Amino acid sequence: MFTKFHRMILSAAAFMSVLAADAGLVAHFSMDVRSGQILETVSGERFAVQGNFAPENVPGAVGNALRFDGYTSHVNARLRDLLPSDARKMTVSLWVALPCYPIIQIDTDTPEKTAIATCLDASKKTGFGFYVGFNGKYSFRTYVGGWPVNIDVETPLPVYQWNNLVAVIDCDARQVKLYNNGVEVGSSRANGSISLPQSDFYMGQSTESRKSGPFELMSFNGLIDDISIWDEAKNIADLSGIKAENAPDLDIPASRFADDILRPHFHGMPAAGWTNECHGLYHADGRYHLFFQKNADGPYMARLHWGHISSENLYDWREEPIAIAPGNWYDIKGCWSGCVFADDVITGGKPNILYTAVDYAKAMIAGAAPVTADLDDWTKYASNPIIGGRPAGLSDDFRDPYFFRSGNDAYIIVGSSKGGVGTTTLHRYNAASGSWTNGGDLFFTGSSAAQDGTFWEMPNVTRMPDGRWLFTATPLGTLQGVRTLYWIGSIAADGKFVPDASSRSPRTVELTSRQGFGLLSPTVYNHDGKTIALGIVPDKLPSETNWRLGWAHCYSLPREWSLAADGSLVQRPYSGLADMRTATSFLRSDFTLSGSVDMSPVAGRSVELCGEFVVGSSQFGFKIFKNGAAEGSIYYNPATGELVADFSALPRLINDGGVYDGVYRASLPVRPAAGSTLKINAFVDHSIVDIFVNDTWATSVRVFPTDTDGINIEAFSTGTTDVRRLRAWQLSVYGSGSGVESVLPDPAGNGLVDVYSIDGVMVRSQVASGEALNDLPAGFYIVGDKKMYVK
């Protein structure tokens, strides 16, 4: 169980005055960044903060702390000759806070540790270092009399709190002691002298490098603050009274991605790093809570945790502390996917987590319960694992538990494989013993590997409002690769799924999806009379691109699901998304579209487009990310009955080569008749486009346009098309209160106007129109109903 932010108090100025008057201080790094460098205050030397992103300071234990990103940021400093060759005393102190532990190695249980800060030189047998392992165990290392001295602490370094690590070396007393927040956590005998000659001093990464692709694994994620070295053995009582002046701020600084034109704004995703499947949507304490697979140490897949984001409205998300992390014998390799459920009998009506717990031999099913009503604090079941592994006769792949209740009986289903075809196991709850069966019963199995895949990820079964049951799974190994399928049916008395006659063969959730593109592994949640679904939409970018971006993947917009009479899935945008619409809008009704229509003032990378077109013989739809001839298009082709999203003419990061090559085609399941109305509703958010057709079919597509000037929006027809209604809105997570007021700039320059960014965010309020754009950065702005460009 992690402890939430611990508040500690102290005046930083008071501590700095203590340091200034401390004659024994021989080196001090405050970690304040100036011009990309930190200062060693005793020598006056400055050292560059290196990494993929600009150096990040946040309020620290003393003054400002330096934020390390977990895979690129580090400092290679230099220490002077600090101690005489026969020195017998030294004290080293630093502050550290971290949200999780370093990776060290991929999928390997290792005793190795990476450096928090070190100048240890094994060849010269000099220096010291603080280290932490993938399991949180930490240590202090040094040499005394030429012999290694290691103090290893078996209790993991606490996360989400400040740890003031102090090592006191007193060879006269023949001891080295390590303290954390004033409490002794380890000690060692020591006899001889210590040596701290001129040496390199590394912060945030080890001297040894180990990489997975472009990603550095021997790296530190979190805050380091106020490193001090004394040439004396300090009395810990003199240091233990010094408390942090700020709680550790482990949020990702907003500056990191402020200029990123590709990062989505209103789609769920963690603040940085890697995400995989989202799971466990749940409403509590006035907010939606969404949990997901997370690696906070970088945008790559390794040692997965359960991340946690929350939102009041399903579009303005904030990241919460990690919910559950690997650390027990049964989940030391990772806490993989599962679900969140509440049950009056089993959980007392409170939400609980079921997850796949993985050691280095097999997968098991485990659980966790909330400590707080806001779901920010969780504790794992003492009885874990609740299911000890796969039933006999199935594949070793066994993961992604999902809970459901039918009548008076409670069940868990888990994805697996039998005979080379995807299946789900069925586990029944025994109320008398509080345990789950594991006898090998199967909930539902596919018909063939070609159609249904060789293994089923993220199985989910939901009772729909009309009483029918919706079963979804994301198979591996179909002829079309990875994509999400669904069946409609009922639950038999024994808890097994029985597909309806209309679902003898599965249907696809997405209009277009193959080889892992589109929405995958949806989480489905019934709340307030709505069935809400959203899932991961992988970016499919090369690792090197994710390394540069600092993030990987996002989730779809929430969709409202229902079932048609024929058992087909009906998908429409979640109604609450309309609250993102700003006053910057476009409306035109009942006209004939010939060629293109500019939809100004709506433009940019955060827009909603909605057109109701009369089907004729011409293609019709929208052009987005347009700049001159470069454009993306979303349109319907009556000749083929296809919806097409064509991004092949855009300058973009290529993520779909050899699969879609920029052109996403989907035959509509029901072909619209000539003269009927076809509604295309598209939400554009920087690098993801969610498309809904006739409030019935949907698909989510990732596209990464790189032209910063590619922001224009048009509606078009290749011939003539009658339009019932054409609408567009600038979107903002701040909702309808933001956007452009219907005020024209005063030609004389004396009137007052508001200025908005192209994404609908207010930049200036009530300024003289003649000065509205003065000194603004280059880019497009909306002033009144005019779109203007600052060079």
Shape: globular
Radius of gyration: 29 Å
* Main sheet properties: 16 strands, antiparallel
Helix content: under 10%
Cα(first) to Cα(last) distance is 52 Å
Model regions low in confidence, pLDDT < 50 over at least 5 residues: 1-18, 737-750
Q: Count the helices. How many?
A: 4
How much strand? over 45%
Helix-and-strand structural type: mainly beta
- Count the E strands: 58
Mean pLDDT, to the nearest integer, reads 93
Q: What can you tell me about this protein's structure?
A:
- By secondary structure, this protein is mainly β.
- Strand 45 (620-627) and strand 46 form a beta hairpin.
- The strands form 10 sheets. It has a 16-stranded antiparallel beta sheet that branches.
- The protein has 4 helices and 58 strands.
- It starts with 11 loop residues before the first helix and ends with a strand.
- Mean pLDDT is 93; it is low at 1-18 and 737-750.
Features of the shown structure:
791 residues; mainly beta; 16-stranded antiparallel beta sheet; ten-stranded antiparallel beta sheet; 4 helices; 58 strands; 49% strand; globular; disordered N terminus
In terms of topology, how is this protein built?
Blueprint: H1 12-20, E1 25-34, E2 37-40, E3 45-50, E4 56-59, E5 64-69, E6 74-79, E7 89-97, E8 113-118, E9 128-133, E10 138-144, E11 147-153, E12 163-170, E13 175-180, E14 183-189, E15 199-203, E16 211-212, E17 215-216, E18 221-230, H2 236-240, E19 273-284, E20 287-295, E21 305-311, E22 317-319, E23 334-342, E24 351-358, E25 363-370, E26 378-380, E27 399-406, E28 409-418, E29 421-430, E30 435-436, E31 442-445, H3 449-452, E32 455-463, E33 469-476, E34 485-491, E35 497-499, E36 507-508, E37 520-527, E38 530-537, H4 543-549, E39 551-552, E40 554-555, E41 559-563, E42 569-573, E43 581-598, E44 606-614, E45 620-627, E46 630-637, E47 642-646, E48 652-653, E49 663-667, E50 677-685, E51 688-693, E52 697-702, E53 704-705, E54 712-731, E55 752-757, E56 762-768, E57 779-783, E58 786-790
Parallel strand pairs: 19-39
Antiparallel strand pairs: 1-2, 1-18, 2-3, 3-6, 4-5, 5-18, 6-15, 7-12, 7-18, 8-9, 8-15, 9-10, 10-11, 12-13, 13-14, 16-17, 19-20, 20-21, 21-22, 23-24, 24-25, 25-26, 27-28, 28-29, 29-30, 29-31, 32-33, 33-34, 34-35, 34-36, 37-38, 38-40, 38-41, 41-42, 43-54, 44-50, 44-54, 45-46, 45-54, 46-47, ...
